[in-house]
Task: inverse folding
């Protein structure tokens, strides 16, 4: 017999259960839709694959097909569960449908309807993590950015409980020259956060905003890290602990990672708490919030890596013919870079943009970027690259925890062509310090084809990543993309 | 010095080999990378490196990205070979 879920002492528990099911349903539905598209692409690629690609494409197609079926079944199951719980809880909405409706009201310039639509939309648990890009794009195209900003500036307080929304609105306000109102909106959100800390999600790092507007970035930093104070770098773990209950992570991915953990000693709650702390460590490393440090000093975390650990990690590297270190876009990426730069005087870093002469950009210039990197290697420079990025060919796939992931083969290509020493490299938080890890990668055999080597090299790379994901939760310190990557990463 | 016709033949053979094409007859001067299935960034760099090795010169960084089509490639290689001799 089902409990009466519309009132009484169990109502709040039912509300929470209903919210949880709703969020899972929305996320799973999104995953299913993306996988369907991927499956169509994979089928087309299979049909037109070159002989040397045929096996790879076929394996990927089979893997995606299996995941589409599983996602569909999960959507059906969650839909049934949703029907079984209270329908009166908190007015949940279908996120995609609600976004579509909101965009329509914006396009029409119907302020009252748009205001209602925004209010409804902000109830959706998924609104927390979305970057609102489709809404912004639609408003820009329709010439309605002013209206959109006005809606945010006058939104109900609950809408300002989410960092992504406040940040998006503030950036928009400044871009359309309504700075005063944008700063006023931030003040409202700041006051609210004194009693109810703002919630943030997997994509809410400040690093991009600082480039846009320093003052805005600092105010957003104050908002995000309200009440957080660190005296020294070593306080990062305590600060992360204090932040841990302010973040929202994808519950489906948490389920997935928990299921695949290697050590079974921790119960779910304790395991998840440590993942949350690790996640916040990553946010603090990326954001380096001045507002949380003494006298606005920018904290750097290199001193949390001991000399002995550093020496041990880099000792096994053969520097005779150059070095290629392959890392992932993780929570400790800035720290990885610093350690790498300190260890290898002559170096280049393959990045999305070029803010220093030692960086080579592959964004929008893959051919040139790869070529320049190879040239730099031939001149004796060591290279740091994160080949899990969204760039590259469509022809290679990695497998992580049984999920086939389209992946770039640029790093494998560099390793193959240069024949240099190559390794997996990452810096792992261990709960009270950071530990650099270097694992030697395979080298190409004398007569080995590139195709064969790329498969072998990528298998190694993703196996190391899988090792990280299934290991100690303190070390699962990843940035936003990885909270989605295993579900529906396609590029 | 290699003739222009020989150079073009060698270039087509390298492209056919790396991209696993049936033959090079469809590679005209107007052909761009996007016209050929599989001619992505990685393969582009592999082709450029193979051409360096074959003809014994080095590309400048910009040249690798400035080429618009196969005709540009022929012209650039011709220039490189001429400069060498």
Result:
């Amino acid at each position: 017999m089902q409990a009466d879920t519309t009132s009484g002492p169990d109502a709040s528990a039912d509300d929470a259960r209903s919210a949880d099911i709703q969020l899972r349903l929305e996320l799973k539905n999104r995953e299913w839709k993306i996988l369907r598209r991927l499956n169509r692409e994979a089928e087309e690629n299979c049909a037109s694959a070159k002989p040397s690609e045929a096996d790879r494409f076929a394996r990927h197609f089979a893997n995606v097909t299996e995941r589409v079926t599983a996602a569909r079944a999960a959507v059906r199951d969650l839909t049934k569960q949703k029907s079984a719980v209270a329908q009166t809880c908190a007015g949940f909405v279908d996120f995609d449908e609600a976004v579509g409706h909101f965009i329509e009201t914006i396009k029409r310039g119907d302020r009252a309807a748009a205001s209602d639509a925004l209010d409804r939309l902000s109830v959706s648990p998924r609104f927390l993590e979305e970057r609102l890009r489709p809404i912004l794009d639609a408003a820009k195209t329709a010439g309605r950015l002013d209206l959109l900003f006005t809606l945010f500036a006058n939104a109900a307080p609950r809408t300002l409980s989410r960092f992504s929304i406040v940040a998006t609105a503030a950036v928009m306000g400044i871009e359309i020259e309504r700075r005063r109102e944008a700063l006023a909106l931030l003040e409202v959100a700041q006051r609210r956060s004194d009693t109810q800390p703002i919630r943030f999600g997997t994509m809410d790092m400040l690093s991009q905003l600082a480039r846009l507007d320093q003052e805005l970035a600092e105010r957003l930093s104050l908002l995000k890290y309200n009440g957080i104070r660190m005296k020294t770098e070593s306080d990062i773990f305590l600060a992360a602990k204090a932040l841990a209950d302010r973040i929202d992570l994808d519950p489906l991915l948490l389920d997935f990672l928990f299921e695949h953990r290697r050590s079974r000693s921790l119960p779910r709650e304790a395991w998840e708490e440590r993942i949350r702390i690790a996640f916040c460590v990553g946010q603090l490393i990326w954001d380096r919030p001045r507002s949380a440090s003494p006298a606005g000093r920018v904290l750097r975390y290199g001193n949390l890596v001991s000399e002995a650990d550093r020496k041990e990690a880099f000792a096994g590297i053969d520097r005779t013919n150059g070095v290629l270190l392959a890392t992932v876009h993780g929570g400790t990426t800035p720290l990885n870079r610093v350690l790498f730069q300190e260890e290898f005087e002559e170096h280049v870093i393959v990045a999305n943009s070029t803010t220093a002469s030692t960086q080579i950009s592959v964004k929008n210039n893959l051919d040139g970027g790869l070529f320049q990197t190879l040239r730099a290697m031939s001149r004796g420079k060591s290279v740091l690259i994160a080949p899990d990025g969204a760039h590259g060919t469509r022809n290679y796939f990695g497998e992580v925890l049984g999920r086939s992931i389209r992946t770039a083969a640029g790093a494998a290509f560099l390793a193959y062509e240069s024949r240099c020493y190559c390794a997996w490299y990452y810096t792992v938080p261990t709960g009270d310090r950071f530990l650099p890890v270097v694992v030697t990668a395979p080298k190409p055999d004398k007569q080995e084809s590139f195709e064969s080597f790329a498969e072998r090299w990528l298998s190694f790379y993703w196996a190391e990543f899988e090792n990280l994901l299934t290991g100690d939760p303190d070390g699962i310190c990843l940035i936003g993309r990885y909270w989605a990557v295993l579900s529906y990463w396609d590029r | 010095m290699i003739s222009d016709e020989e150079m073009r033949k060698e270039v087509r053979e390298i492209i056919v080999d790396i991209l696993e094409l049936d033959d090079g007859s469809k590679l005209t001067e107007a052909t761009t990378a996007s016209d050929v299935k599989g001619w992505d960034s990685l393969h582009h760099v592999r082709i450029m490196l193979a051409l360096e090795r074959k003809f014994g010169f080095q590309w400048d960084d910009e040249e690798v990205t400035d080429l618009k089509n196969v005709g540009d490639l022929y012209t650039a290689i011709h220039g490189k070979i001429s400069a060498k001799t």
